[in-house]
């Protein structure tokens, strides 16, 4: 299968953008999902200040 140079360039751009999005979005996504789920029973409640101080 032979790809044209423009197709290779578009695929390269898509991969570069997806790499940047994953790089900068992974930790915020994990934090968001953790705060959305909440604390486990018996643990102190989650807050933004707890995140900064512990």
From TrEMBL:
Main location: mitochondrion
Record field: transmembrane: 12-35
Entry keyword annotation includes Membrane: yes
Pfam families reported in the protein's UniProt record: Tom7
Entry's Gene Ontology BP terms: positive regulation of protein targeting to mitochondrion; protein import into mitochondrial matrix
Species of the source: Cephus cinctus
Location in or out of the cell: Mitochondrion outer membrane
Domain of life: Eukaryota
Keyword Disulfide bond appears in the UniProt entry: no
Key words, A-Z: Membrane, Mitochondrion, Mitochondrion outer membrane, Protein transport, Receptor, Transmembrane, Transmembrane helix, Transport
Topology within the bilayer: Single-pass membrane protein
InterPro entries to which the protein is assigned, alphabetical: Tom7
Protein name in the entry: Mitochondrial import receptor subunit TOM7 homolog
Family as reported in the entry's similarity comment: Belongs to the Tom7 family.
A single GO cellular-component term on record: mitochondrial outer membrane translocase complex
């Amino acid at each position: 299968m032979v790809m044209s140079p423009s197709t290779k360039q578009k695929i390269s751009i898509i991969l570069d953008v997806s790499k940047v999005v994953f790089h900068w979005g992974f930790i915020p996504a994990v934090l968001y999902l953790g705060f959305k789920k909440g604390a486990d029973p018996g643990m102190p409640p989650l807050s933004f200040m707890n995140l900064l101080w512990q």
